[in-house]
Design a protein that fits this description.
231 residues; twelve-stranded antiparallel beta barrel; Porin; single chain; two-stranded antiparallel ribbon; globular; mainly beta
């Protein structure tokens, strides 16, 4: 959800809503405790439209090296949702996302859908619960097709100086229906923001179940540097 939230910065007014976009790069694309690029770098591009009525839609993409093949592919996420102010400081959001893998060399299709509910306190804290009913995945513990998964994630950002902030997050991931395990993962880092440009340095961690599932793709102990420009 942090990837989607990043598309909201510095939008460009258009008709009754706002357009926005982002162009970023990272030394390691990490999602839920797992490297999506086997420790390699990624270039990422996104764009979205936010209606004045609260609904929004967009797309986000990145190069990936999906487990277990390690052969280059592309991830394309198409999403739509609705956000609503819950008082002065709180916001509620519901998002549907379709994750697709373009030019995927793996013999099985790994595309899946996810619906997420988020409660956010201004731009400081966010709690997200995500449910995917049809996840197909392969790991060292086996292969699972169209099984449900659940994720609960908390993310926060606290200003330290004028342009510097401390960021962090932790998540609990239930893949019991797939592989008989549950695990946690998270990160802590620093963010430097200069108008539309942001640089993040983050240290990732996860429990041992991630290495049991995905071997060297585990992001435990990984340090990643990322940058993004929003327009």
């Amino acid at each position: 959800m942090l990837l989607l939230a990043g598309l909201a910065g510095s939008p460009l007014a258009h008709a009754d809503g706002q357009w926005s976009g982002s162009l970023g790069a990272t030394t390691n694309y990490i999602l839920r405790g797992v490297s999506q690029t086997y420790g390699g770098g990624a270039v990422q591009l996104g764009g979205s439209y936010q209606s004045s009525l609260g609904w929004f839609a967009g797309a986000w993409g990145s190069n990936v090296d999906p487990y277990p093949s390690g052969v280059a592919s592309k991830e394309l996420d198409i999403y739509a949702g609705f956000s609503h102010a819950l008082g002065t400081d709180f916001t509620g959001r519901v998002v549907y996302t379709r994750y697709t893998y373009v030019d995927d060399p793996r013999p099985t299709r790994y595309d899946y859908s996810e619906i997420a509910l988020t409660a956010a306190y201004i731009d400081r804290l966010a709690l997200t619960v995500s449910y995917a009913p049809d996840t197909t995945a392969y790991s060292r513990l086996g292969f699972a097709r169209d099984q449900p998964t659940l994720a609960v994630e908390a993310n926060g950002r606290w200003p330290l100086l004028e342009k510097l902030a401390l960021s962090g997050g932790v998540g609990y991931y239930d893949v019991h229906r797939q592989f008989g395990v549950r695990y946690w993962a998270g990160s802590v880092g620093l963010a430097f923001v200069e108008r539309r440009f942001e640089i993040d340095l983050a240290r990732y961690f996860s429990d041992r179940a991630v290495a049991r599932l995905y071997e060297d793709a585990s992001a435990d102990g990984v340090l990643a540097l990322s940058g993004v420009i929003r327009f």
